[in-house]
Amino acid sequence: MKDVINTFTPNFEEQKIDLHKMGIGGHVKIQPRHQKRLGGTRAAMFVYAMIGLENMAFLSMAVSLVTYFYGYMNFSLTKSATTLTNFMGTAFLLSLFGGFISDTYLSRFKTCILFASFEVVGYALLAVQAHFQELRPIPCNASLGSECEPAGSGQEAILFTGLYLIAFGSSGIKGALPSLGADQFDERDPKEAESLASFFNWFLFSVTTGAIFGVTFVVWISSNQGWDWGFTVCSIAVLVAALFLLMGKSMYRSYVPKGESPILRILKVFVVAIRNRNIPIPETTEELHEIHDKEAGASLSTDILQRTNQFRCLDKAAVITTLLDASEQQQSGSWKLCTVTQIEETKILIRMLPIILSTIFMNTCLAQLQTFTIQQSTTMDRNLLGFKVPGPSIPVIPLLFMFILIPIYDRVFVPLVRRVTGIPTGIRHLQRIGIGLILSIISMVVAGIVETHRKSVAIDNNMVDSPGPLPITVFWLGFQYAIFGVADMFTLVGLLEFFYDESSSGMKSLGTSISWCSLAFGYYLSSIVVEVVNKVSGGWLGSNNLNRDKLNYFYWLLAVLSLVNLGVYLICANWYKYKTVGVSMSVSVKQIGEGSNGDDISERKIEMSNV
Question: What is the pTM of this model?
Answer without folding.
Answer: 0.75
